[in-house]
Fold:
Amino acid sequence: MPIYGLYTIVTVFPFRQVGLTGCLWVRAGIIKAWVGTHFYSRFRGGSKMNLQELRNLLDDITQARIAVIGDFCLDVYWSIDMQRSEISLETGLPTHPIADMRCELGGAGNVVNNLLCLGCKAVHAVGVVGCDPWGKELLRLLESIGAEASGVFMQSKDWTTLAYVKPHLENVEQNRLDFGNYNSLSNTTARRLFSHLEKLLGKVDVVVINQQVLTGIHTDVVRAGLVELINRYPDTIFIADSRHHSLCYSGAVIKVNYQEAIALCEHSDGADVVGTVGMLFKRTGKPVFVSRGRFGCVVQDSDDLTEIPGIDVVGEIDPVGAGDSLLAGIAAALAVGRSPVIAALLGSYTAAVTIRKLRQTGTASPAEVLKAAQSQSGITS
Structure:
C-alpha cells in the first residue's frame, strides 16, 4: 500500500455523479475524507474570496430566479430488518421486511432542492413524471420544498417515473431497483416542455439543463429544441450538466468531471489538464467547469484557466447527489452576476457540506456553507 508522507490511502471512491474522486486517509487512527487537495499547479491564481464577500454572495442569491429542466428522479431508501422475516408460503424464500422507507428528490429534483436550500428566490422545475405512485410522491416533494412545479408534466403512456429504490440491510446498500428504463418521450410532451420553458425565459436569470439518464427527457427532439432556445435567448445563461450529451447544447456553459472531459475531447493524455480543458473551451466558447477529483476543480473562462483548491472534510462521507450540489452552487452564483471562479468556489463549499450527510441526497444551507468555508485556505476572514 503506497504511503504519502504521514497519510495512507485505504480506499478510493469514484464520485461518478459529481466528477469528484474522494479518498479516505488514515492518520493516527482518524479517518479523514478529502474532496480534492490543497494543491496549486501552474494555473492562474485568484481563486479566493473573504467571508464578507461570501456573505454578500449568499445574500444576493435570495434574489436569484432559476429554471431547471431535466431528468427528475426519486431516490427511495428502504431499511430492511430481517428480525421480522418469514418464509413465504408462495415461494419458500425468506421475506425482506421493510422497517422504514423514505423518498428524496434525485437528479434534477436534487438540483432544485439544493438551489432552494441555498436561498434562491424562485426555482422552476420543468420535467416529466409518470402516472404512478412514484410520480405523485415526486410532485409532492417538489411542492413541499416550495418549488414551482407547474412545468412538471405527467405522461400517462410509455413513461414511468425515474425512481431508484435502494434497499439497505444492516446499513449496507443492496442491489438497486430501477424504474424508468423503458421510457419514450412523446412529441406532445416535448412541445409542452418547450412551451413552458420559453414562457419562463423572461423571468429567470439562469436555466440549468440536467441530463441524468439515456431514457429521460433528452431525446434528439428535446436537445435540438433546447439549442434553438439557447440561440434565441442569448442574454439568458444556460448551464448544462449532462452525462451523455455535454457538447450537444451549443451555447451553454458546461460542467463535467475530468473523465468525461477527456472522453469528450478524445484526449488520451489524462495528465494534460491545460490541453483538455482548453479544447473544451474552444469547442464551446463558454465557461467550462471541470472537476478533477483529489486535485480540485478547474475553470476555463476566456483565456484564463483557474484551479480551485480542494476541500478537506473530516469523517465518513457519502457522495450521492454531491454533483448536484456543486452544480447548484455554480448556477446560483452565476445567476447573481458572480464570475465563474467565484461560482466554482461556492459550488465546492456546497458539495463539501452535502457529502457529510450519509445515506441521503443532502442539501446545504447558507449557514452550513459559511461554516464549511471558514476553515479553508481558499477563503480569508
Summary: Residues 29 and 39 are 24 Å apart (CA to CA).
